[in-house]
């Protein structure tokens, strides 16, 4: 029920709708809950609605931190 | 899949597991509740429990909207769906949830009720436009994630002046339920579970933000880390909780910063507050009556409220006495502690709601965790 997936916005449609691509599969969803949406943005979709945009810089920061934490721990292993 | 695959890297997961192992104090327990069913599913699916030290335990919480819907509300839905003038639109995972005496929407559909599974509220609106001579009722359930889509639908119904459309509203709120787990007076008969911290919901928090958990962390002295649903997200969130525990901190931290902001999604929150207001109390399976935990339509939108439109009577139904869903939803018991688990209660023939939804603790354990029980039996 709460599982939601990241998808790329490929086309903006009238009436707050948009086409998104999930690994190449296209789906029409509502973007009524999102402000300032542009083609190429990634959104999290759930029950046919985009809930939020994914912030690419924050995603990059989290990934870097994950790499760092992991490398530290593996480096510290006896 | 971008923004998913890179958060599923096995090598990094092993590194995080090592970090947790080396930072967790072996002299003390760490009991973390993942509130959300999406997290429960991810923990089972990716075998995360096997990567944690023995004294770091995950307790599955009640954050599965299908699981917490009481049997009485399912019975009310079935009665509504059986009316000949109604087309009843539901999310697919509700079809097999047991009401009283083994009834379900799936069985009602087999007997001829016009029940249609929809992926989205937009589909329900379309059905209403295509069938002006019928009454269309949408079975609205879920936490803060599914409430904005229901609100948008009601606003559109108003705009399109659809007179044949209404909503059977069962939307519930996350923070009151988290609070209830820690302080409810009626848990004496179910038992209390010791919790040292919470993994906060991912997608609920995209809507409500991190701010609503701040009071909670302060008031109860429990750390909360909002986490994404991917395995690396969860491992990092657990590490953050371990660190908070070690440093005696109880703050709200946001691991899922790529999707969650402190104030959440303002537009979605506005949609919800325009259309819904709090109920004084709402019944949850496993938690009983939880004050100010459910939503109803505001008076201005009463014409879209199916409970008023069809004069629905509130039904209260006791759960199957042998079913431990209530205690499992609270984290007091595990699926294997229930004598129905894996005998009469399986995903094919669910007796309790925790076995219906793939996010339920029992279904997740049935699908991904049973080999571990077998290994433990062999080891002992």
UniProtKB/TrEMBL annotation, chain A:
A Pfam family the protein falls into: HupF_HypC
SUPFAM superfamilies membership: HupF/HypC-like (SSF159127)
One GO biological process term: protein maturation
UniProt-recorded Gene Ontology molecular function terms: carbon dioxide binding; iron ion binding
Chain's role: Involved in the maturation of [NiFe] hydrogenases. Involved in the biosynthesis of the Fe(CN)(2)CO cofactor.
Assigned protein family: Belongs to the HupF/HypC family.
Protein name: Hydrogenase maturation factor HypC
Natural source organism: Bradyrhizobium zhengyangense
Source organism phylogeny: Bacteria, Pseudomonadati, Pseudomonadota, Alphaproteobacteria, Hyphomicrobiales
């Amino acid at each position: 029920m709460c599982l939601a997936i990241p998808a790329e916005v490929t086309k903006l449609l009238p009436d707050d709708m948009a086409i998104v691509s999930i690994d190449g599969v296209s789906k029409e969803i509502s973007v009524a809950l999102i402000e300032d949406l542009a083609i190429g943005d990634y959104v999290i979709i759930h029950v046919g609605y985009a809930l939020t945009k994914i912030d690419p810089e924050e995603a990059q920061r989290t990934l870097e931190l994950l790499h760092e934490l992991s490398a530290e721990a593996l480096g510290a292993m006896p | 899949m971008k923004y998913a695959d890179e958060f599923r890297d096995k090598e990094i997961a092993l590194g995080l597991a090592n970090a947790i192992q080396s930072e967790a104090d072996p002299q003390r327990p760490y009991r973390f509740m993942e509130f959300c069913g999406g997290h429960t599913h991810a923990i089972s699916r990716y075998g995360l429990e096997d990567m944690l030290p023995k004294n770091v335990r995950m307790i599955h919480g009640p954050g599965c909207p299908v699981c917490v819907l009481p049997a009485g509300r399912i019975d009310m839905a079935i009665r509504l769906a059986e009316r000949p003038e109604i087309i009843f639109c539901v999310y697919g995972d509700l079809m097999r949830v047991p009401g009283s005496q083994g009834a379900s929407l799936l069985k009602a559909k087999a007997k001829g009720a016009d029940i249609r599974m929809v992926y989205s509220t937009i589909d329900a609106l379309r059905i209403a436009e295509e069938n002006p001579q019928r009454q269309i009722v949408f079975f609205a359930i879920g936490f803060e994630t599914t409430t904005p889509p229901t609100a948008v639908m009601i606003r559109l119904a108003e705009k399109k002046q659809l007179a044949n459309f209404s909503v059977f509203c069962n939307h519930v709120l996350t923070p009151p339920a988290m609070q209830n787990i820690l302080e409810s007076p009626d848990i004496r008969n179910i038992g209390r579970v010791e919790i040292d911290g919470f993994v906060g919901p991912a997608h609920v928090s995209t809507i409500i933000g991190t701010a609503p958990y701040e009071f909670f962390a302060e008031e109860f002295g429990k750390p909360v880390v909002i986490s994404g649903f991917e395995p690396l997200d969860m491992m990092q969130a657990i590490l953050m909780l371990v660190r908070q525990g070690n440093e005696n901190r109880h703050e709200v931290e946001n691991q899922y910063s790529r999707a969650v902001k402190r104030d959440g999604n303002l537009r979605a929150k506005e949609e919800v507050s325009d259309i819904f207001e709090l109920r004084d109390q709402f019944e949850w399976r496993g938690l009983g009556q939880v004050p100010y935990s459910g939503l109803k339509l505001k008076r201005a939108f009463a014409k879209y409220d199916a409970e008023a439109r069809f004069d629905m009577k509130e039904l209260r139904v006791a759960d199957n006495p042998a079913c431990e869903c209530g205690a499992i939803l609270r984290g007091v018991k595990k699926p294997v502690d229930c004598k129905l688990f894996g005998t009469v209660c399986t995903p094919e023939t669910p007796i309790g709601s925790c076995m219906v939804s793939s996010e339920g603790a029992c279904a997740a354990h049935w699908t991904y965790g049973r080999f571990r029980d077998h290994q433990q039996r062999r080891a002992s």
